[in-house]
Recover the amino acids of this structure.
């Protein structure tokens, strides 16, 4: 089984459901702590948008990285083991069954940052991937950026 890693990074986009007056009032309540996060999010339609303006990781085939995020050929036991999730229904990418991928999954970038900082990385690709995830979480927030991945042979 190969280790080619294909991915797209997506950020969450909130589109207001109500007019400006209502949204300004809700926003004030949210920022003062009078409106919980869940209620703030319910006032929006949530969608995902591909992040295309960021320099991403330039690696492709890396056994060390694949052993953790791909959950295969895992010599050391991946902290992500058993987490294949498929492709989210609202993903911006359309990787259907006609592609040659043997596995598909997604993670919130914050999940990967947490897992990856506990690992000892040796390859430049893995370190670059780790830094890319940190950058995305810093820029968009831990709840607002995810990575959708597929692996092929």
């Amino acid at each position: 089984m190969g280790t080619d890693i294909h991915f797209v990074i997506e950020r969450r986009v909130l589109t207001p459901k109500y007019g400006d007056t209502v949204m300004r009032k809700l926003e004030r309540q949210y920022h003062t702590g009078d409106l919980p996060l869940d209620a703030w999010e319910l006032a929006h339609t949530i969608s995902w948008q591909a992040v295309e303006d960021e320099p991403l990781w330039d690696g492709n085939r890396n056994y060390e990285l694949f052993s953790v995020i791909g959950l295969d050929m895992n010599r050391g036991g991946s902290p992500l083991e058993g987490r294949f999730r498929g492709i989210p229904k609202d993903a911006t990418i359309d990787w259907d069954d006609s592609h040659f991928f043997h596995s598909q999954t997604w993670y919130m970038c914050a999940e990967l940052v947490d897992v990856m900082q506990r690992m000892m990385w040796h390859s430049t690709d893995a370190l670059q991937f780790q830094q890319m995830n940190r950058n995305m979480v810093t820029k968009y927030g831990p709840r607002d950026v995810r990575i959708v991945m597929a692996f092929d042979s």
In short: The chain has one domain: 4-11+50-152. The helical segments are 20-32, 37-42, 63-69, 109-117, 124-140. The chain is about 35% helix and 25% strand.
